[in-house]
Specification:
Layout (H helix, E strand, L loop, with lengths): L10 H22 L10 E8 L2 E7 L4 E6 L3 E7 L6 E6 L6 H8 L5 E5 L11 E2 L12 E4 L9 H7 L6 E6 L6 E7 L6 H16 L4 E9 L1 H29 L2 H25 L5 H31 E2 L3 H33 L2 H32 L6 H5 L7 E2 L2
Parallel strand pairs: 12-13
Antiparallel strand pairs: 1-10, 1-11, 2-6, 2-8, 3-4, 4-5, 7-8, 9-10
Helix pairs in contact: 1-6, 1-9, 5-6, 5-7, 6-7, 6-9, 7-8, 7-9, 8-9
């Protein structure tokens, strides 16, 4: 018979160690706070494109004329006093060059166009700096068109914004269609407008004033950020509740509570690690925590299922013997599963950067904690609730050849 490892000897020490780690995490939260990412703070979101200006458009009439660019063409929307309400469409399928588009725009009375750079549009589309205005006036409105020579990368955009705090840059699209999403936190003393102006100035200094266009710009208020924090907490609590209901139906109330305690333990350990290292707490971090919740409960359920099976066939009045046997039988499975998963997560940690790197770092801690808690934390709780255990199930099948007897 395979030798049984007496895991129960380490339950008390494991519980004390976990308690100290979690208490230190709570103290860190109180003393140092949580480094909330842009997902949980008020801030600004902009989508920008780096490309040369190809034409300037002006309007001298009395009506209101606005430019509405799209992926298939350019529309001039005419409204207000001085002209009939209408839309003049310039589809790229028919007008394939910058000069051709300019000539069509001139058909609207009062509109003048100056071509700065002619060329075939192809897959490129025209767009405006919507952060300023899309309405035409006597002041020239620039239209931009990307080309291969104007393509930059996200690192260059980050470098241009290095003087700002809490800046995140993501690449959207590929090739000449590339745009960049900039997320930036705003302090109490700043406003969204001030941040827009400062960002535009920094990008213009880096790439040129005639090559930066803001496709869209939004501001996230503090109320939205607070709601996101609340919804994230509710999401985790709802997940724990569903896990408890599932485990209660499949096992017993103490088994179910043990599995939930193990999962909560893992979540607190991960949060402790985040506060210790002051990693950015973002929606990516929430995803990592929920990933470990699913991983940990799976490992715990495997152990609990083996405990339940052994309760029916092991002839002993000491529940710790049954628990130690179940933990021994599933130990190799728990370790192998954790190690093989760690291979891929460590690879992400080593070979990636940014949010994926942080995601992998938190997952590494969560995977180790999940394996540990499934054995020691859930096992310690069950052993405590089953101190007065009477193994009636094993007595019923005592005559079976499969019964394992403990000396």
């Amino acid at each position: 018979m395979k030798k049984t490892i007496h895991f129960s000897k380490f339950f008390t020490g494991a519980v004390v160690l976990s308690a100290l780690v979690i208490i230190s995490g709570i103290a860190s939260i109180v003393l140092r706070g949580v480094n909330f990412g842009l997902d949980f703070k008020p801030g600004m979101i902009e989508e920008i494109r780096i490309a040369p200006a190809v034409m300037e458009v002006t309007y001298t009439g009395s009506a209101t004329v606005s430019v509405d660019p799209s992926a298939t063409g350019l529309d001039l929307v005419v409204s207000g006093v001085g002209d009939e309400n209408r839309t003049v469409s310039v589809p790229y399928a028919e007008y394939t060059t910058v000069a051709a588009v300019a000539e069509q725009l001139k058909t609207v009375e009062g509109v003048s166009v100056s071509v700065l750079k002619d060329g075939v549009l192809g897959e490129n589309v025209l767009y405006v700096n919507s952060a300023s205005t899309t309405n035409l006036s006597e002041n020239p409105l620039r239209l931009f068109a990307p080309d291969a020579a104007s393509v930059v990368n996200a690192d260059e955009v980050r470098a241009a914004l290095q003087d700002f705090e809490s800046v995140d840059v993501k690449t959207l699209g590929t090739g000449v269609s590339t745009s960049y999403q900039i997320r930036m936190g705003v302090s109490k003393d700043e406003t969204g407008k001030n941040m827009q102006e400062a960002t535009a100035l920094a990008l213009s200094d880096a790439f040129g004033a005639d090559k930066v266009a803001v496709v869209k710009s939004d501001f996230i208020g503090s109320q939205f950020s607070k709601n996101l924090v609340r919804d994230s907490i509710l999401l985790v609590l709802a997940t724990l509740l569903l896990i408890w209901i599932y485990a209660t139906i499949r096992f017993h109330w103490d088994f179910a509570l043990a599995s939930v305690i193990a999962v909560i333990h893992d979540a607190f350990v991960m949060i402790t690690f985040i506060t210790w290292t002051q990693l950015e707490f973002s929606t990516t971090t929430i995803a990592a925590i929920l990933t470990i919740v699913g991983y940990s409960i799976n490992a715990t359920v495997v152990i609990l299922d083996r405990v339940r099976s052994n309760m029916k066939i092991v002839d002993t009045a000491n529940f710790k013997d049954i628990l130690n046997l179940a933990l021994t039988e599933t130990f190799s499975r728990s370790v192998i599963t954790t190690v093989t998963t760690l291979f891929s997560v460590v690879a992400l940690f080593v070979f990636t950067t940014g949010t994926i790197h942080d995601f992998a770092e938190v997952l590494i801690v969560g995977l180790i904690s999940g394996c540990y808690s499934s054995i020691f934390i859930s096992g310690a709780f069950i052993a405590c609730t089953r101190r007065n255990f009477k193994n009636e199930g094993a007595v019923a099948v005592k005559a079976s050849s499969n019964v394992v007897q403990f000396e």
